[in-house]
Amino acid sequence: MRAAIVEEFHGDLALEEVADPTCPDDGVVLEVAACGVCRSDYHGWTGGHPKVTRGSIMGHEYCGTVVETGPQSKHKVGDRLIAPFILGCGSCPSCQTGASNTCANQIVPGFGAQGAYAEYVAVPFGHNLVHLPDSLSPALAAGLGCRVTTAWHALTDRAQVRAGEWVAVHGTGGIGLSALLLAKMLGAQVVVVDIVDEKLEHAKAHGADATVNAAKVNAAEAIRDITGGGAQVSVEALGIAATTNASVECLATLGRHVHVGMPAGDGMMEVNMRAIYAKQLAFYGTRGMPSWKYPSLLGMIERGDVDISPMLAREVALSDASAELRAMGGPTAPGTAVITDFRN
């Protein structure tokens, strides 16, 4: 199969013919129809994630068609499936209590296991896989594996957003844009923060009640002014100290900060604990979404309760992945890229 391989950090991915993956006993091999290019991949490509090494095949936002099944798999050849990026084992205490996104035995393709920047990907723990509705295109579905599902879990499980609340979203990449669209569906008022005017205009066109350019004003102060005292919920979607502190500082008393952005490197940063203490804030970490929540989210998308099409900016070839990753080193345009051509 053709795959894009990390050869040197910060360097072009090497396009090579490699052996097809071996089918796991409890899973499947998918012919990849689409795979998102995610900022988490950028962290791995720059050497900022310990499980991405030279020789890795990245790609964790994928969907595709089953071409081979293991003897313990419940799926069949020809099934169109999508998977959460965190594959829970199904038997540990976390999985048994419905929190498979915290599984101690988890497997994450692209981070320690070979991912979907390739024509085929092996998916173990196949019970996590969910059937993809015919109405949802692979390119649009690919972003569900990480960005949309992570944002949905952050808003509904961690923050428990309620209609009428103010939600601040710091960063309008894939996670941030998903959080905007989903928070609006939940009936919240949303203020979006970025440093790129084009992305702020894009967010406003897709429902943002207010926008803040953090390169021009103090974001936390601006949000407190816009919301009349502070947001009830703030979503940090970038993973750096500046946005983390702006998120904490923009909240009203008893507000909820939800940290979604993956911190790079050792993950250490200075956080304004005085703001957390004085305003009695809740500080939540979140990562991924349990697979059992997929059907309800897919159902809402199928019914048209939420339109996630603004997520998808462009479909690219496998050979374009390096350029997409490199662009994440600076300000990026609205929307996300999805690989749909795996031979070029």
UniProtKB/TrEMBL annotation:
<dbReference type="GO" id="GO:0016616">
    <property type="term" value="F:oxidoreductase activity, acting on the CH-OH group of donors, NAD or NADP as acceptor"/>
</dbReference>
<protein>
    <submittedName>
        <fullName>Zinc-dependent alcohol dehydrogenase family protein</fullName>
    </submittedName>
</protein>
<keyword id="KW-0479">Metal-binding</keyword>
<keyword id="KW-0862">Zinc</keyword>
<comment type="similarity">
    <text>Belongs to the zinc-containing alcohol dehydrogenase family.</text>
</comment>
<dbReference type="InterPro" id="IPR013154">
    <property type="entry name" value="ADH-like_N"/>
</dbReference>
<dbReference type="InterPro" id="IPR020843">
    <property type="entry name" value="ER"/>
</dbReference>
<keyword id="KW-0560">Oxidoreductase</keyword>
<feature type="domain" description="Enoyl reductase (ER)">
    <location>
        <begin position="11"/>
        <end position="339"/>
    </location>
</feature>
<dbReference type="Pfam" id="PF08240">
    <property type="entry name" value="ADH_N"/>
</dbReference>
<dbReference type="GO" id="GO:0008270">
    <property type="term" value="F:zinc ion binding"/>
</dbReference>
<dbReference type="Pfam" id="PF00107">
    <property type="entry name" value="ADH_zinc_N"/>
</dbReference>
<dbReference type="InterPro" id="IPR013149">
    <property type="entry name" value="ADH-like_C"/>
</dbReference>
<dbReference type="InterPro" id="IPR002328">
    <property type="entry name" value="ADH_Zn_CS"/>
</dbReference>
<dbReference type="InterPro" id="IPR050129">
    <property type="entry name" value="Zn_alcohol_dh"/>
</dbReference>
